[in-house]
Amino acid sequence: MWVETPSNPLLNITDIAATAEVAHKYGTKVAVDNTFASPALQHPLADGADVVVYSTTKYIGGHSDVVGGAVVVNDEETREKVAFLQNAAGAVPSPFDSWLDIRGLKTLDLRVKRHSANALKVAEWLESQPSDVIERVWYPGLESHPAHEIAARQMHGGFGGIVSVQLAGGAEAAKHFVDHTQIFTLAESLGGVESLIEVPAAMTHASVAGTTLQVPANLVRISVGIENADDLIADLKQALDRI
Ligand SMILES: Cc1ncc(COP(=O)(O)O)c(C=O)c1O
């Protein structure tokens, strides 16, 4: 079974321990994409998963300057299978990419805690805005998130740096909003120290339009960086005021 928690871009939460319990009853392995939480906040192997995968492009690299991935396992048989595939398919990072990831790991814990603290402030501020501007905020740290209790149990020390928000004014309002931020850069990817903003339906998730994976057209995904939280909120405020 493949689990992505929190998920991109709607921040859905899956109970890792409960999933592993059911899967193992039927002899099925569980792989968890832990990219959004990072190893600083969530430990799927300790919760019963068999495999953890990361896009190290995101929080592990942390500076938007490396593209990479990692597979983490805790049994020799799976490690050998992954190593065989890696050797056969050539999925091997360069020495410089590895160096950038290792350098990122040294500050991962500090960065992710700041990302999480800033994201909670941003999410709470967005949620306090009038309902004719903000329709819905998606962040696992908010009590309004349908799986907040599961997230609070399986994430430790924060809920991550990604906040998604649906604008009452629809797709047009979403596009105007992301066009007018000054600190948040309009760009794909996430998890770097600088704040980014994007419209998934038109950008990162455009290829799933018309499928069951389609995301709402009025959704904006925000990768909250490690800048001053008050500056970030002031930037979002002036951009919302200009819609
Ligand atoms: C949860 C998650 N996993 C994997 C990936 C893939 O990352 P990469 O671009 O490094 O292949 C992404 C990219 O956005 C992601 O958000």
Describe the protein in words.
- The protein has two domains: 2-97, Type I PLP-dependent aspartate aminotransferase-like (Major domain) (Aspartate Aminotransferase, domain 2), CATH 3.40.640.10; 108-241, Aspartate Aminotransferase, domain 1.
- Helices cover 36% and strands 15% of the residues.
- The protein is built from six helices and nine strands.
- It has helices at residues 16-25, 76-89, 95-127, 148-154, 170-179, 229-241, and strands at 2-4, 31-33, 51-55, 69-73, 134-138, 162-167, 185-186, 196-198, 219-223.
- The termini are far apart.
- The relative contact order is 0.15.
- The site of pyridoxal-5'-phosphate has 9 residues, from loops.
- Its cofactor is pyridoxal 5'-phosphate.
- Pfam families: Cys_Met_Meta_PP.
